[in-house]
Each structure stands twice: as C-alpha cells, then as structure tokens.
Amino acid sequence: MKNILSLAAAFTLLTAPLYHANAAVSVSGSTSVSNVVEVLAETYQKSSGRHVDVQGTGSSSGIVAAKNGTSMIGMSSRELKAGEAAADIQQLVIARDGIAVIVNNNNPVENLTRKQIKSIYRNEITNWKQVGGEDKAIVVVTRDASSGTREAFEKILGLKRQVNGIPVTSISAGAQVANGNGMVKTLVANNDYAVSYISLGSVDNNLLKALKVDGITASDENILSGQYSITRPFILLFKNETDPRAADFIRYILSDKGQSIVAEQGYIRVK
Amino acid sequence: MNTCTKTNDSGISHRHTPKPDRLGTFFHLVFICCAMVGVVSLATIAWFLFSEGLAAFRQAGVIELVFGSEWLPPALFGIFPMIAASLISTLGAVLTGVPVAVLTAVFLAELAPKWLADIVRPAVELLAGIPSVVYGFFGLVVIVPAIEVLFNIPAGNTLLAGIIVLAIMILPTVITISETSIRALPPVYKEGALALGASHIYSIFKVLIPAARSGILTGVALGVARAIGETMAIIMVMGNAPAMPGSILEPARTLTANIAMEMSYATGIHASALYSTGIVLLIFIVLLNTGLLYINKKRVH
Questions:
Q1: Closest C-alpha to B109, from B31, B187, B169, B43
Q2: Among B142, B164, B162, which residue's Cα sits nearest to residue B253?
Q3: Which of A18, A77, B114, B211 is geometrically suited to a Cys-Cys bond with A30, CB 3.0 to 4.6 A?
C-alpha cells in the first residue's frame, strides 16, 4: 500500500510540470529578445498569476516555432526574410535595440565610421593604427553564422555578398567566432585589441566600451531620434487567431508598465 | 557406454534427460542484449547521420564538401579547413600528451616512491573527472593569455591553445591504461633483464615498454578518440574561425565545434551540411581506430 501511495505521489510530481506547461503561455526564439521577455514574464506572473515559459533558441527557430504552433509566441531580433513570412502570422515590434560596436576599455579608439567597421570586418583594415589607435593587429570577433545579432549587423552595414545567387556573409573567414553574447563579452574583456558587436542592452561598462559610430554615441536618445544607425527591431510573432492567454501577455508588454520595463532593461520603448 | 544407455531406457530416464536450463538461457539473452546496446546505438547514430546528411552531399557534391575550403552557409559548404583543424589539433595533442603520459605511467609503476605515487595517481584520476567546460575556461584564462605573451601575437585563441588543452585532457586516459598494462607484465620480464645485467632504466625502455606496447596503444587510441571528439573546451579556446589555419598560431574550427556552434539555429540544407560534418567525423574516428588496431596487431605478432 505504502509503495502504491509513493508511486502515485511520484507520478503526480512527474506529471505536474506537464500540466503546468500546458496551462502556460509559451514563448521561444531570439536569445537577445528573450533577455527582456524573461523579465517581462516574471513581472507579468507576479501581477496576473499566470505563468509564461520563455526559451532562448535563436531567431530562426523562433520564427519556425510561431509558424508551426510549437510556441504561442515566437521572438525574432531581425526582420523576417522573404521566405519566412506567412499569411497567418502577425508581427509586432515590442522594442528597438541598438547594436553597439565594442572594444576593450584599454583601447584608446573612441570612434569608428560605418565604412571603417565594414572594412575591419572584411579584413581590409587590419591594424588599429589605420583607424587612429595603437600599432597593433585588430582581433575581429563575430557571432556564429545564424545569430540574429549577426544577421542584423551584416544587413545594416552591408556585409553581404552573392555566391551562386545566394546571399552570404562577407565577414572575413579569419574572424574569431563566439557562440553567444557571453562569450563575445569574455573575449573582448580579455583582449585589449579585440573588436566585436553586441546588443546595446548587454554592454557591461566595467570591462568594455561601446564605440561612437560616425561620431554618434550609442545611446537611447540617439537611437530614438534615428541618428544612431545600427539598430534593429525586437519582434514578436503570433498566429492571427491568438490564444487569449498569449494575447493578454502581449497587451501587458505594450502597456505602459511593460514598456517601462523594456526601457529599464536598456532597450528602446516603442510606445 | 551401451549398458549405460540401456539402464537409462529402462525406467529412470526422466532423471537423466537434460532439463532445459531456463536460467542459463535467460542470462545468455541478458548478456547478448547488453552487448548489443553499444552496437545498436552506433548503428542508429550512423543511420541518423547518413539519412540527415546525404541531402548536403547530394546538393554540394562529396568532393566540393570534403575538399572545399569555404564555409559560407547556405551557399558553400567546404569543410576541408575543419578536417585539417581536427587532425592537426588531435595529432598535436597526441605528440605532446602521449610521451608525457607514458613516462608518467612508467614513473608510477616502476620508479615512484610510494608516498609520491599516492599523490600523483589520485591527481591524475581527478583530472579525468573534470568537465570539459572547466578545461575550456582554464584554457581561456591561463593558456590563451600565456600564448599572447610568449609569441607576441594579438589573440591567443589559436590551434596551439587547443592542442595544449587537449594534451592535458588525454593524459588521464593514457596514463591509467598504460600504468595498468605495465603493472600487468609478468615479473620475470624485469627480473630476467636485471639478471642479465641491464640497468633499471635500460630494462624499462628496452623490455617493459615494448612488452606493454599493446596496452599503451589501446590507451593512445582512447586518447585520440577523446581528443578528436572534444567540443566544449575547443570552442572556448580555439577561436572557431572557419578559415584554413596558416600556422598553429592562428584560430581554427574543428569538425565538432562546427556542429555544436551552428546546430541550434541551422535549418534546411545548412542543417544537413552539419550532419554531413558528423558523417566525416564518424568516418575519421573509424579510420583512426582501424589504423591503431592494425598497428597493434601487427606489432604484437
């Protein structure tokens, strides 16, 4: 009898999360967007008591998840490509984000032009001396091929070229590749001559600094006014006939409360 | 013999008919099932890799994929630089790690005073239990900056950093297996050598190590497998640039790193190309193991 009871208890414990997950709003996609949506989900849960399940899986898989219904809401940190949009999917911009070009705090360089950044990533400028810094080789750090940040960075700066009619990256193959924001930060913080790019909201000012681009500081005001040019939208994707629980969470994100959380996290509010 | 059979026929035959040995059959089956777990897993993995990866081979062509030097998904899928990086990092790790490991094993088995062996052996065994992400972190904060200073290069995330980390990672496997095989030698080998007037060191290099060759090579084979399959530590210290490294002081991306870095996002033909990277890796491991087995057999005979 005792055994049966404990078996039943174990079974309940094992299946409880399943039941819980079914009742929750599921959100998955871009790791950059999930940073802010996780915070929104926490505060939403406190005020409404409803659970939101957030998973950072990358923009590409977030878009797929929204289309095939694996998640109620998908997250993307880049505009959808031509083949990715679908008639029954709505897109909603919940915030804007600046992509900061970052260097180590010990690097004297403060400003780069868009053209210089592009040349550095194409391996045409290889020494800091050429852009007003020390006589040291530039260590170029980029993200892995399918990161939303990389996709947006390439698109905004025109770091694309055609191979066999397919658009591919023109970032030099010799650049170091980091597979996440955390690793980008570690690499740049530990190397005086590294340069990389990262979501403005994730810049840690103790170890690395965001460069001015064309003389414009990467700040919220400059992004809002449109002066700072390397920006991207944070997009939520959901089906036309949205689950009411998901719709409620989306309303919360667009509310004044939700948008001020977006601003607190270092991103730019859209309302 | 005949009389015996007759007695059997006449009355007490039931005592002598062999009872079906159910327990024996049962355990026989259990043993077979256990032995099949590994084989079935391997077959499933291989089948899965081939069914997913063939699309990329079909679209890009085997030659283009294996010998192409540009990795530009979704247009070009050349993995030759990664094959080179995997082979160079593994070879480098074996060349630096194995001598150290074999000498350590000899030291532990033959030369070390008991108190010192009692410190070294647990330390080596502990090394085997450290997760690879910790090795990677150690490489990132200790080895990478050291390489920057030693060679005066801007970034220490290089093939060399990967080789050093891998060399340390294969130590415990090679040391433990080599030491066991040296200890397992019959004492007469050493006694005979010493009786013939050979010095202790001479008998170690001319008698003990050659005699334990088969065990040492098994250790090396496992070390090679560990080195070529290592992913996490390599991603952290090797820079992962998909370009052909010009020297061991340049960043490089191994086959395993390529799969791990892009698998979570990749779709369509890109994902398929990552599976075909896995196929190439599998083929390499099979070739390496076969090669080592062959050397092992040939030398022993």
A1: B187
A2: B162
A3: A77
Question: What pLDDT, in 10s, does the model give residues A250-262?
Answer: 999 999 999 999 8
Say if CB A232 and CB A3 are below 8 A apart: no
What is d(CA B148, CA B155) in angstroms, rounded to the nearest whole number? Answer: 6
Q: Which residues of B touch A57 (CB under 8 A)?
A: 264
Half-sphere exposure of B234 (CA within 13 A, CB side): 30
User: How large a percentage of chain A has pLDDT more than 90?
Assistant: 37
**Cβ separation B155–A177 shorter than 8 A:** no
The answer to whether the Cβ–Cβ distance between A179 and B235 falls below 8 Å is yes
pLDDT value, residue A48: 87
Cβ density class B226-255: b for 16+ within 10 Å, e for less:
bbbebbbbbbbbbbbbbbbbeebebbbbbb
Cα–Cα distance, A259 to A255 (Å, whole number): 6
Name every chain B residue with its beta carbon within 8 A of the beta carbon of A173.
70-71, 241-243
Q: Report CB contact under 8 Å: A176, B270.
A: no
Q: How far is B241 from chain A (nearest CA, A)?
A: 5
Partners of B141 on chain A (C-beta within 8 Å) are: 190
Per CATH, domain A4-97+233-269 is 3.40.190.10? yes
How far is residue B178's CA from residue B172's CA, in Å, rounded to a whole number?
Answer: 10
Which one of A146, A168, A176 has the shortest CB-CB distance to B157?
A176
Q: Which of B154, B235, B239 sits opposite A137 (nearest CB)?
A: B154
Q: What is the DSSP string of A148-168?
A: HHHHHHHHHHT-EEEETTEEE
Domains A4-97+233-269 and A98-225 share a fold: yes
- Are B262 and A176 an interchain contact pair (Cβ–Cβ within 8 Å)? no
In Å, how far from its chain's centre is CA B69? 27
Low-confidence residues of chain B: pLDDT under 70: 1-18, 299-301
Report which DSSP code applies to A240.
S
Bridge-based pairing state of the strands A194-199 and A89-104: antiparallel
d(CA A131, CA A101): 14
Interface membership of B243 toward A (CB under 8 Å): yes
Asked if residue A60 lies in contact with residue A146, where contact means CB atoms within 8 angstroms, the answer is yes
pLDDT tier at A232, thresholds 50, 70, 90: confident
pLDDT for the residue B81: 94
A21 has a pLDDT exceeding 50: no
Residues B7-66: pLDDT tens digits?
A: 444 444 455 666 778 899 999 999 999 999 999 999 999 999 999 888 888 888 888 888
Class of domain A98-225: alpha beta
Cis previous bond, B74, omega within 30: yes
Residue B13 tokens read as 């035959």
Domain ranges in chain A are 4-97+233-269, 98-225
Closest residue, chain A, to B136 (C-alpha): A183
> Which of residues 1 through 40 in chain A touch B, CB cutoff 8 A?
none
| pLDDT of amino acid B291 | 86
